[in-house]
Amino acid sequence: MTETSLTYRIMVQSASVLVPALGLFDPKIRSGHRRRQGATKRLRHWAAAGRDQTRPLVWFHASSVGEGLQAESVMNELRRLRPDAQWVYTHFSPSAEQFARRLPVDVADYLPYDSPAAAEVLLEALAPDLLVFSKLDLWPELATRAAARGTAVAMIAATVSRGSGRLRWPARPLLRPGYGVVSAAGAISSEDSERLARLGVAGDRILVLGDPRFDSVMQRVQSVRRDDPLLRWGEGEATLVAGSTWPEDEAVILEAFAILQRRRLASRLMLVPHEPTAAHLVAVERAAVRAGLMRPVRLSNAVVGAPLVLVDRVGVLATLYGAGSMAYVGGGFGRAGLHSVIEPAAWGVPVVFGPRWHDSRDAEVLLQAGAAEALGELSRREAAESLARVWEGWLTNDARRLIQGRRARQVVEGGLGGARRSAELLDGLISLRLLQRSPTLGQ
């Protein structure tokens, strides 16, 4: 049996002890820790009442919402191939709790900390035939112990950025046992395939299957009704929808909008903060006034046509991008990482973002296709002037804006199919596992 190291186990134990202290300063950490502590008991309770040993059980794990959306599209495809299966879904981030609740699975919950005891208890109770990790959030203790029991361990939408800390010491040797037991991995690109091999996945078990998120995003766009009230916000003047923004983004966007206002260019801005807490919304309103702009109108109180709207709701960004003539995607100025650029691209609108985009393969592909613009490493004032130039170019040159938007949509359409290919990979693993359990059960 491949095992994790004593060092890894000590680190996990130490981290779980430290989390409550960190939770004193961060409500999200506190909430996640509290819910995670009861997860083993809740999952065991479901298994005792609902686990049908005559049916294959597929366990998907995805850390947060982004990874969850990739997993969801693969689950939808796999469900068509395996209508007889039972489904378990776990996540780690508190931000994914609401998302997990809406998934059509038998049970969804937090994943407990990656300790030997928790892994053994859950594997004994759930008896999964297939354990699937989405993107890169593989838990070595759970993976190695699942493999030792005969469970197939797989990865989907596997991607490893150039700067991933997992590729460096000490993370790489600590995590290697988990990656070493992977039965099959669907990588997004050939570059991801090479880096997965460096992490420890056997090269002959890696296939380049594309990114299931393209399928997920396109399905969401196609599911939006054309008469959705949120789409009405695109009526009238050309609108820039700035999504998943952080304070560093907002400072640049508001200053750029002020520049356009002084030039009397007809334009509108919808600002969608990544975390629209009450305190943050007030801070954005004050920043707008300092920039010489009118006070933003909050979406909950606004009427269509307001020039500056501050979105005070969550869960609407994917639809609001459809109301935009162009999009700004946040995260490219701070340390949070660039957010999803393919959501606006799927609507066929051009995209602009900050300078820290190099860990986003999607951003790179859009730039190569001439479907997006990236701001440089500049001072805030210079970045605002640069954004204003891009923004003004889209406002005054419809042909250029429409061509870039069409190219963005083509990038997304060209990436479709990853979910189906990933599901077919997993279906093969399930069939093999069932044949190993019982020659008649797999037929």
What's this entry about, in short?
The protein has helices at about 5-25, 25-35, 40-50, 65-80, 95-100, 115-125, 140-150, 170-180, 190-200, 210-225, 245-260, 280-290, 315-320, 340-345, 360-370, 380-395, 400-415, 420-435; strands at about 55-60, 85-90, 105-110, 130-135, 150-160, 185, 205-210, 240-245, 270-275, 295-300, 310, 325-330, 350-355, 370-375. The protein has about 450 residues and is α/β, with parallel strands linked by helices.
Describe this structure in words.
The protein has 443 residues and is of the alpha/beta class. It folds into two domains: 6-210 and 417-437, 3-Deoxy-D-manno-octulosonic-acid transferase, N-terminal domain (Rossmann fold, 3-Layer(aba) Sandwich), CATH 3.40.50; 226-414, Rossmann fold. It has 18 helices and 14 strands. The protein has a seven-stranded parallel sheet, sandwiched between helices. The chain has a seven-stranded parallel sheet with strand order 10-11-9-8-12-13-14, with helices on both faces. β1, α4 (65-81) and β2 form a beta-alpha-beta unit. α7 packs parallel to α8, α10 (212-223) crosses α18 and α11 packs across α16. The longest helix has 20 residues, at 418-437. The radius of gyration is 23 Å and the shape is globular.
Low-confidence stretches: none
User: How many distinct helices?
Assistant: 18
The shape is globular
Radius of gyration: 23 Å
Largest β sheet strand count, sense and barrel closure: 7 strands, parallel
CATH topological fold name of the largest domain: Rossmann fold
Compute the number of structural domains: 2
Helical amount: 40-55%
Beta-strand percentage range:
5-15%
Specify the CATH architecture of the largest domain.
3-Layer(aba) Sandwich
N→C terminal distance:
29 Å
Strand order of the largest sheet: 3-2-1-4-5-6-7
